[in-house]
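Hi all, long-time lurker, first post. I run a small reading group and we've been trying to get comfortable going from sequence to structure in the token notation. Rather than ask abstract questions, I figured I'd post a concrete chain and ask someone more experienced to write out its structure so we can walk through it together at our next meeting. Sequence below, copied exactly:
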Amino acid sequence: MRPGEAKGSLVPDVAVSRAEYADVYQLAAVLACALFDLRVSAFLIPHVDQRRRMLPQIVSLAYLQPALADGVLWCTGDRTAAAAWLCHSPGQPHQPDPQVQAALSQVTGRWYPRLQRFDELLAEAHAPFLEIPHDFLGVLGVYPDLQRQRAGTALLAAYHRHLDSIGRPAYLQAVQLELIGFFQRFGYVETGHIITLPNHATVHPMWREPQPAP
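-- Answer (accepted) --
Happy to help. Here is the structure in token form:
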């Protein structure tokens, strides 16, 4: 079994699989809709029309393309939900790609310094775990009209099954208080480092140890 593959979803009736580069455009649009109303997104791109235009490109550049290049991109069969993972190994940190940063700067214009500062804060929170091999969930999202139908659960369950089989931890950064309880159901615990943005949006880093097989 290759890294990131599983023998099927643990959630009945929700098919999941690895995404390909041909899926990026559709998945970027889906995730942009899922992230649009978050307070974190409002801090990064305060102007509503600009946020609507920029978010799909930001998602593609910052999450989806890196996952395809250096990790795993999972999606549901109908391409209405996705999860982008990066594989982290000590001594091989994921350095910002200058070409990606240049593209993000061009896309976001005057808002780019906010993205830079946000990345710095996320990196500071992640730093205590960099000496531990783990996989990092960069983004998880479901198209808004289809949320609470277990697509997100299926995506996490499928990949956690792989992580548990190889004894590998996972790390993520919950961008809503309401998501903490959701991730706790999968064995994640808060690290105690809370990121607070100027508009009072908060980000909650969480860590998951591999779980024993039932």
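A couple of things your group might point at:
The domain at 16-208 is CATH 3.40.630.30 (Aminopeptidase).
Residues 1-10 have pLDDT under 50 and may be disordered.
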